[in-house]
Amino acid sequence: MYAKILVLFGLALLPQLEALGTFDPNVICGLVVNGTKMNDPRACNAWVQCIDGEPVSGTCGSGLFYDRESEECLASDKVKCVSSDPCAALANGFTADPYSCNGYYYCQNGKGTHGACSPGMNYSPGTEDCIRNFPCAAKMDPDSICNILPDGVFIKDATNCNGYQMCWNTQVLNGTCPGTFYFSASAAECVYPKDEVCAFTPAPVIAAEGVCPQAGVFVSDNSTCNGYYYCRELADGEISLEHGVCSEERFFVATDGGACVPRSKVKCDYDRCVGLGNSTIQLANESNDGCRGYSLCQDGSVIGQGTCPQDEYFDEVSQRCTTQVISYPACQLSSDTTVAPEAEPTV
Ligand SMILES: *[C@@H]1O[C@H](CO)[C@@H](O)[C@H](O)[C@H]1NC(C)=O
Ligand SMILES: *[C@@H]1O[C@H](CO)[C@@H](O)[C@H](O)[C@H]1NC(C)=O
Ligand SMILES: *[C@@H]1O[C@H](CO)[C@@H](O)[C@H](O)[C@H]1NC(C)=O
Ligand SMILES: *[C@@H]1O[C@H](CO)[C@@H](O)[C@H](O)[C@H]1NC(C)=O
Ligand SMILES: *[C@@H]1O[C@H](CO)[C@@H](O)[C@H](O)[C@H]1NC(C)=O
Hints:
chitin-binding; 347 residues; chitin binding; binds 2-acetamido-2-deoxy-beta-D-glucopyranose; 34% strand; glycoprotein; Chitin-bd_dom; mainly beta; three-stranded antiparallel beta sheet; 2 helices; 5% helix; repeat; disordered N terminus; 3 domains
């Protein structure tokens, strides 16, 4: 269950830490192996090295730029400086926007003003003007960590326990550890989960006003018959939503603080095939049809519908049409049935 919550909320988090606009050496140093040295994206002559998880910065001598591949300071004309600050390499004059084909910067005393060519024109660094259809090689992704790290360095994915990335020819390659292994930033490899504290804690999803009647109750996720949220009170008094799923053959009802009850007792208008039809096709009745119709379920989704012959009722429990009158609350026509909670969902 806990793992499911991690995955669910992990997907909702965008991997923002890559954004160079908010370059934070402290964050990156928590994700790479001890000793990793990188270009400081804010300047051409500066570098950052991660020592025991802490960033240590340095700058090159006069006239030298930091070269991330050789990890040395080289003559500035020998290093193609790619920086989030385009005026880092050129104090005065025009320079191309490293991230777009038609953009350029005018730098004055190291401060840049952005400009853009008219539509259809690209900036030509050689002639310093805008030329129609001037050929432009693919530009870099402004948010890529591969703008600053050398090729071949592993970077732990901060949004989950088992993912990592690596830069190759300035492209980001994504990887995932096999099976249950976790990626260890300090070892730069996949390790047994017992050997790695996965510090990834998802940011809580704060419940909007009115979603939770009070803390400590369960509410429907309003998209599946068996999914719910637990309303957990946080230290600051806000309420977070933690997603969960009822065990097999049970659907969620929100009455009395929420419960998972046998599916035949629950009227639910979302896909009733959820949890059915994994290995063979299974049948599920439909809600509100007097227990005459059924759905064909495969891999948890409806793939078709049917109706029992006249005077017959569909019995989901025996999976067949029968002349016996069936009146499960789930498929009854009028919905005045009250359902007693039988099992608390678990979190
Ligand atoms: C990390 O690297 C630094 C410099 O290379 C070294 O002095 C230090 O002992 C290393 N720390 C660990 C935990 O290996
Ligand atoms: C790698 O993963 C990131 C998110 O973690 C995603 O934005 C990116 O598109 C992926 N790249 C590739 C090549 O799959
Ligand atoms: C789902 O709908 C019910 C009834 O409208 C509402 O009380 C509940 O807060 C909703 N759940 C979520 C997660 O929005
Ligand atoms: C369909 O009816 C069966 C009994 O015939 C019941 O167990 C089941 O919950 C019902 N399903 C739906 C979708 O109404
Ligand atoms: C069907 O598959 C889903 C997803 O793989 C799983 O969560 C569910 O427990 C399975 N149900 C049964 C009855 O095996």
